[in-house]
Amino acid sequence: MPVEHYENFPVASLLLPRRLRQPIEAIYRFARGADDIADEGNASDTERLKGLARFAAELDRIESGQAPESPEFAELARVIGEWQLPIQLFRDLLDAFAQDVVKKRYADYAELLDYCRRSANPVGRLLLHLFDRASEGNLRRSDCICSALQLINFWQDIAIDWTKARIYLPQEDLARFGIDERQLAEGRCSPAWEKLLDFEINRTRQLMLAGAPLVHALPGRFGWEIRLTVQGGLRILERIGKARGDVFRHRPVLGPIDWLRMAGRAVFM
Fold it and tell me: What is the pTM of this model?
Protein backbone atom coordinates (compact mmCIF):
# COMPACT_ATOMS: atom_id res chain seq x y z
CA MET A 1 0.00 0.00 0.00
CA PRO A 2 2.11 2.96 -1.22
CA VAL A 3 2.10 6.09 0.91
CA GLU A 4 4.48 8.53 -0.77
CA HIS A 5 1.90 10.53 -2.71
CA TYR A 6 -0.77 11.07 -0.07
CA GLU A 7 -0.57 14.83 -0.41
CA ASN A 8 -2.84 16.19 2.27
CA PHE A 9 -0.67 15.40 5.25
CA PRO A 10 2.99 14.99 6.23
CA VAL A 11 4.08 11.37 6.46
CA ALA A 12 6.61 10.20 9.07
CA SER A 13 8.48 13.50 8.92
CA LEU A 14 11.78 13.84 10.72
CA LEU A 15 10.00 16.35 12.94
CA LEU A 16 7.85 13.54 14.36
CA PRO A 17 9.08 11.50 17.36
CA ARG A 18 10.81 8.32 16.23
CA ARG A 19 8.56 6.09 18.34
CA LEU A 20 5.48 7.32 16.46
CA ARG A 21 6.76 7.12 12.90
CA GLN A 22 5.92 3.44 12.51
CA PRO A 23 2.28 3.70 13.71
CA ILE A 24 1.81 6.84 11.61
CA GLU A 25 3.18 5.05 8.54
CA ALA A 26 0.74 2.18 9.16
CA ILE A 27 -2.19 4.64 9.25
CA TYR A 28 -1.07 6.33 6.05
CA ARG A 29 -0.53 3.05 4.23
CA PHE A 30 -4.09 2.09 5.04
CA ALA A 31 -5.43 5.47 3.89
CA ARG A 32 -3.33 5.61 0.76
CA GLY A 33 -4.03 2.01 -0.17
CA ALA A 34 -7.79 2.45 0.16
CA ASP A 35 -7.68 5.77 -1.71
CA ASP A 36 -5.77 4.14 -4.56
CA ILE A 37 -8.41 1.42 -4.87
CA ALA A 38 -11.07 4.11 -5.23
CA ASP A 39 -9.11 6.40 -7.50
CA GLU A 40 -6.27 4.80 -9.46
CA GLY A 41 -6.06 2.49 -12.45
CA ASN A 42 -8.80 1.32 -14.79
CA ALA A 43 -10.90 -0.86 -12.51
CA SER A 44 -14.68 -0.76 -12.79
CA ASP A 45 -16.77 0.83 -10.05
CA THR A 46 -17.88 -2.65 -8.97
CA GLU A 47 -14.27 -3.80 -8.65
CA ARG A 48 -13.33 -0.69 -6.70
CA LEU A 49 -16.17 -1.15 -4.23
CA LYS A 50 -15.27 -4.81 -3.86
CA GLY A 51 -11.68 -3.85 -3.02
CA LEU A 52 -12.84 -1.39 -0.39
CA ALA A 53 -15.17 -4.04 1.03
CA ARG A 54 -12.12 -6.26 1.52
CA PHE A 55 -10.51 -3.49 3.59
CA ALA A 56 -13.72 -3.18 5.64
CA ALA A 57 -13.79 -6.93 6.25
CA GLU A 58 -10.24 -6.80 7.56
CA LEU A 59 -11.23 -4.01 9.96
CA ASP A 60 -14.07 -6.22 11.20
CA ARG A 61 -11.59 -9.02 11.88
CA ILE A 62 -9.24 -6.67 13.70
CA GLU A 63 -12.08 -5.33 15.85
CA SER A 64 -13.22 -8.83 16.78
CA GLY A 65 -9.69 -9.86 17.75
CA GLN A 66 -9.15 -12.18 14.78
CA ALA A 67 -5.96 -12.18 12.76
CA PRO A 68 -6.32 -10.37 9.42
CA GLU A 69 -6.51 -12.62 6.37
CA SER A 70 -4.03 -10.47 4.45
CA PRO A 71 -0.51 -10.06 5.88
CA GLU A 72 -0.49 -6.40 4.83
CA PHE A 73 -3.00 -5.67 7.62
CA ALA A 74 -1.03 -7.37 10.38
CA GLU A 75 0.95 -4.23 11.21
CA LEU A 76 -2.21 -2.12 11.24
CA ALA A 77 -3.88 -4.59 13.61
CA ARG A 78 -0.94 -4.36 15.98
CA VAL A 79 -0.94 -0.55 15.88
CA ILE A 80 -4.70 -0.30 16.50
CA GLY A 81 -4.43 -2.67 19.46
CA GLU A 82 -1.29 -1.18 20.98
CA TRP A 83 -2.46 2.43 20.74
CA GLN A 84 -6.18 1.76 21.29
CA LEU A 85 -7.14 3.68 18.17
CA PRO A 86 -10.88 4.13 17.42
CA ILE A 87 -11.60 1.76 14.56
CA GLN A 88 -14.59 3.85 13.43
CA LEU A 89 -12.14 6.46 12.14
CA PHE A 90 -10.74 3.89 9.70
CA ARG A 91 -14.27 2.96 8.65
CA ASP A 92 -15.03 6.63 8.01
CA LEU A 93 -12.12 6.77 5.59
CA LEU A 94 -13.42 3.74 3.70
CA ASP A 95 -16.90 5.25 3.58
CA ALA A 96 -15.53 8.45 2.02
CA PHE A 97 -13.45 6.56 -0.55
CA ALA A 98 -16.47 4.44 -1.52
CA GLN A 99 -18.44 7.66 -1.94
CA ASP A 100 -15.77 8.92 -4.32
CA VAL A 101 -16.45 5.94 -6.57
CA VAL A 102 -20.13 6.75 -7.06
CA LYS A 103 -20.61 10.45 -6.24
CA LYS A 104 -19.20 13.04 -8.67
CA ARG A 105 -21.00 16.26 -7.70
CA TYR A 106 -21.75 18.11 -4.43
CA ALA A 107 -24.83 20.24 -4.03
CA ASP A 108 -23.54 22.66 -1.42
CA TYR A 109 -20.76 23.45 1.02
CA ALA A 110 -22.33 21.47 3.86
CA GLU A 111 -22.38 18.34 1.71
CA LEU A 112 -18.74 18.86 0.79
CA LEU A 113 -17.74 19.34 4.43
CA ASP A 114 -19.50 16.10 5.31
CA TYR A 115 -17.26 14.36 2.80
CA CYS A 116 -14.21 16.04 4.37
CA ARG A 117 -15.40 14.85 7.78
CA ARG A 118 -14.85 11.29 6.61
CA SER A 119 -12.08 11.64 4.01
CA ALA A 120 -9.65 13.91 5.88
CA ASN A 121 -10.63 14.53 9.49
CA PRO A 122 -10.09 10.92 10.66
CA VAL A 123 -6.36 11.16 9.93
CA GLY A 124 -5.93 14.21 12.15
CA ARG A 125 -8.01 12.61 14.88
CA LEU A 126 -5.91 9.45 14.76
CA LEU A 127 -2.74 11.52 15.16
CA LEU A 128 -4.19 13.25 18.20
CA HIS A 129 -5.01 9.86 19.73
CA LEU A 130 -1.42 8.75 19.13
CA PHE A 131 -0.14 11.84 20.94
CA ASP A 132 -2.74 11.53 23.72
CA ARG A 133 -4.11 14.99 22.90
CA ALA A 134 -7.63 14.03 21.79
CA SER A 135 -9.58 16.57 23.84
CA GLU A 136 -12.84 17.95 22.47
CA GLY A 137 -11.28 21.31 21.63
CA ASN A 138 -8.24 19.78 19.97
CA LEU A 139 -10.39 17.44 17.89
CA ARG A 140 -12.54 20.35 16.73
CA ARG A 141 -9.51 22.41 15.68
CA SER A 142 -7.91 19.40 14.01
CA ASP A 143 -11.09 18.90 11.98
CA CYS A 144 -10.86 22.50 10.77
CA ILE A 145 -7.25 22.04 9.66
CA CYS A 146 -7.85 18.69 7.98
CA SER A 147 -11.01 19.80 6.18
CA ALA A 148 -9.19 22.93 5.00
CA LEU A 149 -6.32 20.82 3.68
CA GLN A 150 -8.78 18.61 1.81
CA LEU A 151 -10.50 21.65 0.28
CA ILE A 152 -7.14 23.15 -0.70
CA ASN A 153 -6.32 19.91 -2.49
CA PHE A 154 -9.65 20.14 -4.33
CA TRP A 155 -9.02 23.71 -5.50
CA GLN A 156 -5.46 22.79 -6.46
CA ASP A 157 -6.63 19.81 -8.52
CA ILE A 158 -9.77 21.13 -10.21
CA ALA A 159 -8.37 20.29 -13.65
CA ILE A 160 -7.18 16.82 -12.61
CA ASP A 161 -10.50 15.97 -11.00
CA TRP A 162 -12.35 17.09 -14.13
CA THR A 163 -10.52 14.37 -16.11
CA LYS A 164 -12.03 11.89 -13.62
CA ALA A 165 -15.52 13.37 -14.16
CA ARG A 166 -15.49 14.87 -10.65
CA ILE A 167 -16.36 18.39 -9.58
CA TYR A 168 -15.87 19.23 -5.92
CA LEU A 169 -16.82 22.88 -6.33
CA PRO A 170 -20.32 23.02 -4.81
CA GLN A 171 -23.04 23.24 -7.42
CA GLU A 172 -24.65 26.16 -5.58
CA ASP A 173 -21.38 28.11 -5.83
CA LEU A 174 -21.05 27.44 -9.56
CA ALA A 175 -24.59 28.71 -10.07
CA ARG A 176 -24.02 31.74 -7.85
CA PHE A 177 -21.08 32.89 -9.97
CA GLY A 178 -22.58 31.87 -13.30
CA ILE A 179 -20.12 29.07 -14.08
CA ASP A 180 -21.20 26.01 -16.05
CA GLU A 181 -19.41 22.73 -16.63
CA ARG A 182 -18.52 23.65 -20.18
CA GLN A 183 -16.21 26.33 -18.80
CA LEU A 184 -14.40 23.71 -16.71
CA ALA A 185 -14.13 21.42 -19.72
CA GLU A 186 -12.54 24.23 -21.74
CA GLY A 187 -10.25 25.26 -18.89
CA ARG A 188 -11.46 28.80 -19.46
CA CYS A 189 -10.82 31.51 -16.90
CA SER A 190 -12.99 34.60 -16.66
CA PRO A 191 -13.67 37.38 -14.15
CA ALA A 192 -16.54 35.28 -12.77
CA TRP A 193 -14.25 32.25 -12.41
CA GLU A 194 -11.67 34.36 -10.60
CA LYS A 195 -14.35 35.61 -8.21
CA LEU A 196 -15.51 32.04 -7.57
CA LEU A 197 -11.98 30.89 -6.72
CA ASP A 198 -11.44 33.95 -4.52
CA PHE A 199 -14.63 33.04 -2.67
CA GLU A 200 -13.47 29.44 -2.10
CA ILE A 201 -9.95 30.58 -1.14
CA ASN A 202 -11.23 33.03 1.47
CA ARG A 203 -13.66 30.53 2.99
CA THR A 204 -10.99 27.84 3.14
CA ARG A 205 -8.45 30.24 4.66
CA GLN A 206 -10.89 31.13 7.44
CA LEU A 207 -11.45 27.44 8.15
CA MET A 208 -7.70 26.83 8.35
CA LEU A 209 -7.18 29.82 10.65
CA ALA A 210 -9.97 28.56 12.90
CA GLY A 211 -7.96 25.39 13.47
CA ALA A 212 -4.50 26.97 13.66
CA PRO A 213 -4.52 27.52 17.47
CA LEU A 214 -4.23 23.74 17.76
CA VAL A 215 -0.45 24.08 17.31
CA HIS A 216 -0.15 25.59 20.80
CA ALA A 217 -1.73 22.50 22.36
CA LEU A 218 0.65 20.03 20.72
CA PRO A 219 3.96 18.87 22.13
CA GLY A 220 7.38 19.74 20.77
CA ARG A 221 8.19 18.62 17.27
CA PHE A 222 4.63 17.52 16.53
CA GLY A 223 3.51 21.10 17.09
CA TRP A 224 6.14 22.30 14.62
CA GLU A 225 5.07 19.67 12.10
CA ILE A 226 1.50 20.98 12.20
CA ARG A 227 2.68 24.60 12.05
CA LEU A 228 4.41 23.82 8.76
CA THR A 229 1.40 21.89 7.52
CA VAL A 230 -0.91 24.83 8.22
CA GLN A 231 1.48 27.29 6.59
CA GLY A 232 1.86 25.00 3.58
CA GLY A 233 -1.88 24.96 3.03
CA LEU A 234 -2.12 28.73 3.38
CA ARG A 235 0.74 29.18 0.94
CA ILE A 236 -0.98 27.03 -1.68
CA LEU A 237 -4.06 29.23 -1.32
CA GLU A 238 -1.88 32.27 -1.92
CA ARG A 239 -0.46 30.69 -5.05
CA ILE A 240 -3.93 29.92 -6.40
CA GLY A 241 -4.89 33.53 -5.81
CA LYS A 242 -1.70 34.81 -7.42
CA ALA A 243 -2.49 32.73 -10.53
CA ARG A 244 -5.87 34.50 -10.60
CA GLY A 245 -7.59 31.16 -10.19
CA ASP A 246 -5.99 29.66 -13.29
CA VAL A 247 -5.44 26.17 -11.89
CA PHE A 248 -5.83 24.74 -15.40
CA ARG A 249 -2.41 25.90 -16.59
CA HIS A 250 -0.74 26.75 -13.28
CA ARG A 251 -1.24 23.97 -10.76
CA PRO A 252 0.22 25.52 -7.58
CA VAL A 253 3.08 23.63 -5.95
CA LEU A 254 5.56 24.56 -3.23
CA GLY A 255 9.18 25.34 -4.07
CA PRO A 256 12.29 25.97 -1.91
CA ILE A 257 11.49 29.67 -1.42
CA ASP A 258 7.98 28.75 -0.28
CA TRP A 259 9.41 26.42 2.37
CA LEU A 260 11.65 29.17 3.70
CA ARG A 261 8.68 31.52 3.87
CA MET A 262 6.56 28.89 5.59
CA ALA A 263 9.26 28.21 8.17
CA GLY A 264 9.51 31.91 8.97
CA ARG A 265 5.75 32.27 9.34
CA ALA A 266 5.55 29.11 11.47
CA VAL A 267 7.81 30.69 14.09
CA PHE A 268 5.33 33.50 14.70
CA MET A 269 2.11 31.47 14.85
Answer: 0.92
